[in-house]
Amino acid sequence: MKRFIDLWIGAVVLLLAALLYTTGLPKTDGMATSIAMNPAWYPWLLLVMAMICGLGLIASALLSRTGSSNVSAGVRPARMGAGLLAICLYVAGFWFVGYWAATLLFIPALSWGLGHRKPVEVALVTLIVTSLVWLVFTQLLHIPLRDWPF
Amino acid sequence: MDSLITALMMLATPAALMAVMGGTLFGILVGALPGLGSVLGITVILPFTYMLDQTTSIALLLGTYCGSVYGGSISAILINTPGTPQSAATVLDGYPMARSGRPALALGWATVASTFGGLLACGILIVAAPALARFGLRFGPIEYFALGLFALSCIVSVARESLLKGLLAGLFGLFLATVGQDPVTGAMRFDYGSFELSAGISLVPLLVGLFAVSEVLWRIAGPAEPGGASIMKAGFELPGFGELRLRFWLMVKSSLIGTGIGTLPGIGATAASLVSYAEAKRTSPRKEGFGRGEPDGIVASESANNAVTAGALVPTLSLGVPGDPVTAVMLGALTIQNITPGPRLFSENGDLVTYLFLALIAVNLAMFVLGALLAPAFSRLLKLPEPLLMASVVVLVTVGTYSVNSSAFDLGIVLLAGLAGFVLRWLAFPLAPVVIGFVLSPMIEGSLRQGMILTGDNFWAFGASPIAAVLFLLTGLFLLWPLYGWWRGRRRSGTHGHPVSGD
Q: Which of A53, B286, B293, B323 has its CA 20 to 30 A from that of A42?
């Protein structure tokens, strides 16, 4: 299993480096008098080194029985997806409906989702954190937050 | 003398003093809450520095940095869980001492040792940093390129899982910094027609995503950790004068170990505290008590890990090369404040350097006062449920990032970097080389290109500089050392598996 993961990582690194090399670098058409004046030279160097490392990962995975390295066991991808979605929704909510509404919903929702279900404690911490952050930014640092309605 | 008076006046302002106290308090909190740590603390505080002036920002950052290292000892002593990896060795004697009915004294020893280590290292910083900066004035682009490469290789070579993954992480950080306008020719790189990308990726959203958001995701979806340790209630008790006198030289020795290790890139406070603990255990007349609540263990670990903070600032300030992710973020924060660490900082901005030294001393003193006054309160704060803590971190970093540029693009970078950080952790890539690479990339690219112009595109001529040659040699050794270890391990296991006749 580990061997396949390392093979995959190596292949993805190779592909990504090749893709970035072909699509993201400016064309110089040999105008630069020195390689140091070529804006593509340094990123090109980095991408080539990344490709060498990617090849190294593939080679070490093929040569060894278990693969060169480990991955963290016990990760729960579904929970990660849900957590990321919650954070994305908060950021979108912060942008579109404003700080107060998004934050007052997000803290209880995430706590509930993660299994902490003590309503009084959650309500208290939500109110304290939301008010404190708002006070620090708007009153102390004079930065307006995206307040409701937006 | 004028510089000292000016620096004292800068520190005596209400804003600077508040930043010293506030930053230290925040740092202690972040350090005490297990799993958050120094990097996350500095990352969360980073957006605030945009709104503050130079002196207040410096005090806030230093307070957070030093406070977080000390804060780790509180949870190590009270709940048998180091708040930060730097306090891993403190657990060994701190928790047994607390269990034996002396939690207040254990906290007292940790506070005294931390303050002592921090202050002694400050003294060394004040002497060593200007001397190193004077040496750094001899550096040209070639030497800086070699130095940047060396610093990065130190971080990469300590990647625990795989050297290749460490290298890839470093290259990823170096690469991210190339997005946007080329500083020499003005040509666009990897912008794909996006106006926002043409300005490059900002430090704040990248770090916030990479460390803070990925940490939250990791807590949500990472491997479940055994919890449920009982939290001990504690007061604060200072050790007696006789006890202090008995352990004075141990504090000095441990602080020197911490400072020395702190100046070396990539090794860090965790190794310093473990080395210091091992050395104390080896030489202590009370060695039989180690692991059973011997104060020497707490003193050795805490003096060393707090001494690392000032030690790590020696190369950061005098050469502009960070030794770990925390000082890399500090370097970025100072750059945001139009302060460029390096040899010229000492000759051109002496007042600010003196202020920085004084602020560091003030932070260590604040750490002692806050530790003594608030230690009982921390045992209650450790009971804050993790889901509420994680949600609060998300709110704080989102608002903090938004406050820098009011940019939706930056918030998008936070999310992407958070996802990237999670995936990198999952695949056992170290995160430290990414941030060190990102911060060092402009220096490495700039000095490499200048050097190539100076040598007429002949890279081999870089070796003509003795300083660069030594640094290149060290870089090679650092990168090849893990390979040698791997080869030796294979050889040894091969020998064990197939014994040669006659052995």
A: B323
